[in-house]
Amino acid sequence: MIYLDNAATSWPKPPGVARAMSNALTSGMGNPGRTSHRLSMDAALMVQECRENLAQLFAIANPLRICFTSNATEALNLAIKGVLSPGDHVICSSMEHNSVWRPLVALEERSVELTVVEADPNGITDVASIERSIKVNTKVIAVLHASNVNGAIQPVAEIGRIARERGIAMLVDAAQTAGSIPIDVEAMHVDLLAFPGHKGLLGPQGTGGLFVNERVNLRPLKEGGTGSDSNSPHQPLYYPDKLESGTLNVPGIAGLNQSVRYLLQKSVAQIARREATLTRRLLAGLMKIDGVTVYGPPAEMPRAAVVSFNLRCMDPVIVANELERRGDIACRPGWHCAALAHRTQGTQDTGTVRLSPGSFTKMTEIETVLGIVAELAAEHQA
Amino acid sequence: MAQQLAVFASLNQVALVKRALHREGVHVEMLRTPRCLSHTGCSFALRCSTEAIALLEEVCRKWKIEVGGIFADTQDSSPELDNVLLDE
Fold it and tell me: Which residue of B has its CA nearest to A230?
């Protein structure tokens, strides 16, 4: 198979990830924080090691400010619902995924004021427009780092600087960039960083996390057992216990720990360069095919390894089916859970075909895909 | 060698401190806090030598981790019998 659906979940995983998960299940991993036998303590140390590795990856000063979640959506909900209250104002871009847009719309129905700043048709959000939208009651600016529809990278550091100057919390959805593009929360002035474990971080599904800067205080999304202060009816106030109720996904975190180790060894910057080369070739090849419309920023601008296109008036689902039938190519057609972004780039009525290379994609595979798209285009000439 | 018990609210904190001390070549043992020292229900502790206490406190200051107390641990009996508060 030629796997070009890494924006949905990455595959394959680095060496050792499956073994780490299997070991957690077969050799034993206890429930961290609940008791003191060896298996429980081993699990706690492994979970802490994973926090430290993630902290190193994102330049986070205090690993205890990283809370594990089951995916980026849960992390985003935790951030959004944990900080916003009725009467607060929140700004987001028109490129947001439903995992940001839907919780914000749900809160809008509960008296939170929402401003959606229009990105340009390429999907880039104008920093000055964000700044002009700030009000006295603006509590959060929520921006995705890179679009899951067309790969457009947002000027997060510039927006973060403005947010920091105004005392506004900066929430970044790093679903498409964590592990694929270097992230430094300090340099980018990020207060809340939501990330999945199973995409660019190359870990298993069911993992993710939220970094919470010490400047921000969140209400938990759920209360319950933490293994700490257990005689108190109240949730602990210290992190990560405050936000991590219930048993963690220890086998998943074991796999994530292994994949983050791999990334630290390999270097995210190196992976980013490799994925950029593959993406540039994919873009250049698609643009040369008569009848193909490619969306997003111009090829010379930086973007995440996400490419959306349409082939004449063909239904993206048919194109995806043909890619799979002819070349065993896995991609994703449709709206990618991002109606706002499709509206912004003008594909709300059609959706697109999305190709997303990953860490293990080969250049020969990109050439094969281009050949099949060209073949389809030739067969469906207007 | 005299042993001490440093009490913490959470195993997450204990795991961070243990790993930080380990990087400095100091071995400490993680354990559940004995009932007599655990006033808020479940909590965790680190058993370490008296010599390691200064470094442990330094690590806790660096990571802004509150130590619930540091107690002498006789090891041959329950700390309940000898819970001398050294530093709180």
Answer: B41
Mark out the alpha helices in A267-360 (DSSP H runs): 268-287, 316-327, 339-345
Examine the fold and report which residue of A266, A297, A322 is the final residue of a domain before the chain moves on: A266
pTM of the complete model: 0.95
pLDDT at residue B75, as a whole number? 59
Taking the CA of residue B40 and the nearest CA in chain A, the distance in Å comes to: 5
Domain that holds residue A297: 2-10+268-379
Task: Report yes or no: B78 at the A interface, CB cutoff 8 Å.
Answer: no
Comparing A107-111, A356-360, B81-85, the range with the smallest average pLDDT is B81-85
Of A51, A62, A228, which has the smallest distance from its Cβ to B10's Cβ?
A228
Exposure string of A85-102, with b = 16+ CB inside 10 Å and e = fewer, is eeebbbbbbbbbbbbbbb
Residues 26-55 of B with CB under 8 A from A: 30-32, 40-44
> Which of A322 and B86 is assigned the larger pLDDT?
A322
Residues of A in contact with B63 (CB under 8 A): 62, 64
For B19, name the nearest residue in chain A, comparing CA atoms only: A45
Q: How far is CA B64 from the centre of its chain?
A: 15
Locate tokens 């679009």: which residue? A147
pLDDT at B14 over 90: yes
Res B81: pLDDT: 39
Say whether pLDDT at B76 is over 70.
Answer: no
Residues A176, A190: one domain?
A: yes
Domain of B72, CATH number, reads 3.30.70
Same domain, A21 and A170: yes
